[in-house]
């Protein structure tokens, strides 16, 4: 039986994933983590120790805002929402990520015999 590998996030990628998770509307922290997990078909799991510091950092930068509300289970939860600045940041990060993916693809598709 093959061991299931967990993907490690490149530095800065978590911010982009969080911003993307909020594009369709507000989510609480657990909802953000669950969205990332489900959307990546369980390939990525964001731990609380990474998620909440990232959310607080992004809130300080003005990319997201938060307010208290009730979760689906009727518990008090902080909901995070994308700001206009956050939308701009997401667009910038997606462009940078696409550029990086293109560059890595060039390397992976190069002929090793040419080196």
Automatic annotation (TrEMBL):
InterPro entries: Metal_resp_DNA-bind_regulator, Tscrpt_reg_PadR_acidobac-type, Tscrpt_reg_PadR_N, WH-like_DNA-bd_sf, WH_DNA-bd_sf. Pfam families: PadR (PF03551). Residues 18-91 form the Transcription regulator PadR N-terminal domain. This is Lineage-specific thermal regulator protein. The lineage of its organism: Bacteria, Pseudomonadati, Planctomycetota, Planctomycetia, Planctomycetales.
């Amino acid at each position: 039986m093959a061991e299931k590998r967990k993907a490690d996030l490149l530095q800065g990628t978590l911010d982009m994933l969080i911003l993307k998770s909020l594009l369709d509307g507000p989510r609480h922290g657990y909802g953000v983590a669950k969205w990332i997990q489900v959307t990546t078909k369980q390939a990525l799991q964001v731990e609380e120790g990474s998620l909440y510091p990232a959310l607080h950092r992004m809130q300080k930068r003005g990319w997201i805002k938060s307010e208290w509300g009730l979760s689906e289970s009727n518990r008090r939860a902080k909901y995070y929402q994308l700001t206009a600045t956050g939308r701009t940041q997401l667009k910038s990060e997606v462009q940078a990520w696409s550029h990086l993916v293109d560059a890595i693809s060039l390397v992976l598709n190069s002929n090793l015999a040419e080196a």
